Write a sequence for this structure.
């Protein structure tokens, strides 16, 4: 267990609003090892992005934002750290790659400048050496004529190039954990493949752990080692990637896989019927109960814990509660 | 960048020609003319005709305009028909005072507005934010002549710490100059500060919600760097426009404040010119105000390009 890089335990992020408490993330636990890519999948609004922001402590400062649980990073709980110490971790030990490359670079500074800022803040590097780092990062993420490109502004970059720039920025601090929040969603397919390849290559080179947040099961299949499926603020299934695709357990995961188009398949796609629940108006039971084809009484009264169906496959569904059988 | 500035300069030319045209004809729409004002109660037809001929007012308007423009292009703005002083000299005597007043007002406004607007946005819904909103409402709704009058009452009449009016030259006595300019500067600057503060606040509010601001946080930048380096430069782009427009208004529109504090600036000169139907002086004043407006806009455009690389590279 030494190589466990990130150990999230019972993480909860709740927002108090006028309409009640929104349980955006509600008691999730997962681990990421060095050199491992964990995929967190789920539909929009299921709490994936809030999870990443909670790990980095980008939420939790306002009075209405409540973050609890434990986020053990290299053995230390980030949730109890002082803001000053968090500053030293963000961008240095943990890098974030945001969703939309079109908006995640500051339009008034050159790309090189924005990458160079990372070593300047964290290593107190000189302007010159920071600039060299920036160029090296741009080369690393495969931007041609990096020296000239570093001097350009984000609007002079194409979407794919910008995302490479963002990745370069995330890597500039030489992080041991990378959080990629839908890094390919805004890109077209060929660029997506390039960016995913790049991430794999970087993982191999730096042995960093990666959390890949996505709603795209294709991305998961391509690069992740293991997957956590999130639904309405909870993890409903966790398994190694091959196992999950070959042998999905949770009805929601099954539904997700059935709604994926397959090449050459003439069968109609089966969407998951219904809508995810309102996060400020949840009942005690399983959050998927209202959409689940296998629902029975117990599902409505108590949320199922994660049941192990295999040594490394766990799912939150009473169908797999062996004691009950 | 050079090409960009050149383009802006070329655009300014037709604007200035248009302004000269409008100011020339507008001035002549006012009932009565220089001659009636000069002669006053001694007015009679005969003298009026002679005087009109002497001043060139008997010619068709379009010819008068052509002659005036030809002179203006050679740098000759004509003579005041009342004092016989060259218009250019009269304006140049007054311009430094108006410029100083404008600079003081704008600096006062910016010193308050930018930090206040920025903090109000970052600490939204905090007491600071409410304070800023109050200042914004106050500054916008209180007329500057009222504020000026109240300040005279308090600081000059009641406490006697500042002069109620009059101008002391910058070169003569620095302290006296500052004392004479402080109240009019604050009276004018409050409204500007309020407008700029509100703009800064709303612009900054938009910026802090941007994805790149989240990324900056994720990079580990400190709060102050996050606000002043990553946020403010973006937020200032629309603010600069507002500051430019406000500065333009101040240069031409401080008539009332100059009157209240008896500052001999361009605004007061223009007011006298209107009362006297002093055509050439009034035209000169309008042209000067318009030109400074255009120049300020040009400066704003250049600042804009400096702040916003997208414009620079178009």
């Amino acid at each position: 267990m030494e190589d466990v890089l990130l150990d999230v335990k019972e993480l909860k992020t709740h927002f108090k609003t006028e309409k009640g408490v929104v349980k955006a993330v509600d008691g999730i636990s997962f681990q990421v090892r060095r050199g491992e890519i964990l995929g967190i999948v789920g539909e929009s609004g299921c709490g994936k992005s809030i999870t990443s922001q909670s790990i980095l402590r980008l939420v939790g400062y306002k009075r209405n934002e409540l973050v609890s649980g434990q986020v053990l990073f290299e053995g230390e709980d980030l949730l109890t750290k002082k803001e000053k110490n968090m500053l030293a971790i963000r961008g240095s030990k943990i890098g974030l790659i945001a969703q939309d490359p079109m908006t995640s670079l500051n339009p008034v500074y050159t790309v090189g400048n924005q990458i160079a800022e990372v070593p300047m803040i964290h290593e107190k590097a000189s302007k010159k050496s920071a600039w060299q780092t920036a160029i090296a990062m741009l080369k690393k993420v495969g931007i041609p004529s990096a020296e000239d490109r570093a001097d350009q502004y984000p609007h002079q970059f194409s979407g794919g190039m910008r995302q490479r720039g963002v990745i370069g920025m995330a890597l500039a601090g030489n992080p041991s954990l990378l959080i990629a929040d839908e890094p390919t969603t805004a890109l077209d397919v060929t660029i997506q493949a390039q960016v995913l390849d790049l991430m794999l290559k970087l993982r191999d080179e730096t042995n960093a752990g990666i959390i890949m947040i996505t709603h795209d099961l294709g991305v998961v299949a391509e690069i992740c080692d293991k997957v956590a499926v999130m639904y309405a603020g909870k993890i409903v299934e966790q398994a190694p990637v091959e196992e999950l695709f070959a042998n999905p357990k949770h009805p929601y995961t099954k539904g997700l896989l059935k709604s994926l188009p397959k090449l050459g398949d003439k069968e109609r796609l089966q969407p998951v019927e219904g809508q995810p629940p309102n996060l400020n108006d949840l009942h005690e039971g399983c959050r998927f109960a209202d959409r689940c084809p296998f629902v029975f009484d117990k599902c409505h009264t108590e949320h199922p814990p994660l049941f192990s169906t295999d040594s490394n496959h766990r799912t939150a569904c009473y169908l797999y509660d062996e004691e009950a059988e | 960048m050079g090409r960009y500035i050149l383009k802006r300069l070329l655009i300014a030319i037709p604007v200035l020609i248009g302004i000269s045209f409008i100011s020339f004809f507008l001035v002549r729409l006012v009932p009565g003319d220089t001659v009636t004002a000069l002669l006053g109660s001694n007015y009679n037809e005969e003298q009026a005709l002679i005087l009109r001929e002497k001043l060139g007012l008997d010619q068709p308007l379009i010819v008068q305009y052509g002659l005036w423009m030809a002179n203006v292009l050679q740098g000759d703005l004509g003579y005041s028909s009342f004092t016989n002083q060259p218009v250019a000299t009269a304006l140049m005597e007054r311009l430094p005072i108006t410029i100083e007043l404008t600079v003081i007002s704008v600096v006062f406004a910016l010193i308050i507005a930018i930090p206040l607007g920025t903090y109000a946005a970052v600490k939204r819904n905090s007491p600071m934010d409410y304070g800023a909103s109050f200042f914004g409402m106050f500054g916008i709704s209180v007329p500057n002549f009222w504020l000026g009058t109240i300040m005279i009452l308090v600081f000059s009449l009641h406490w006697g710490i500042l002069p109620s009016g009059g101008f002391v030259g910058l070169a003569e006595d620095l302290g006296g100059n500052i004392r004479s300019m402080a109240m009019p500067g604050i009276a004018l600057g409050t409204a500007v500060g309020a407008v700029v503060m509100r703009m800064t606040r709303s612009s900054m509010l938009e910026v802090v919600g941007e994805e790149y601001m989240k990324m900056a946080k994720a990079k580990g930048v400190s709060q102050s760097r996050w606000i002043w380096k990553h946020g403010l430069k973006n937020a200032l782009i629309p603010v600069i426009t507002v500051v430019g427009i406000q500065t333009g208004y101040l240069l031409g529109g401080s008539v009332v404040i100059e009157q209240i504090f008896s500052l001999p600036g361009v605004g007061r000169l223009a007011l006298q010119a209107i009362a006297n139907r002093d055509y050439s002086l009034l035209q000169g004043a309008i042209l000067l105000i318009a030109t400074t407006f255009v120049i300020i806009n040009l400066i704003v455009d250049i600042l804009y390009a400096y702040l916003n690389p997208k414009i620079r590279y178009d």
Chain A has a mean pLDDT of 89. Chain A has one domain: 4-105+157-324. The interface with chain B takes residues 53, 56, 58, 86-92, 95-96, 98-100, 103-110, 117-118, 121-122, 153, 155-156, 166, 169, 173 of chain A (CB under 8 Å). Residues 149 and 156 of chain A are 9 Å apart (CA to CA).
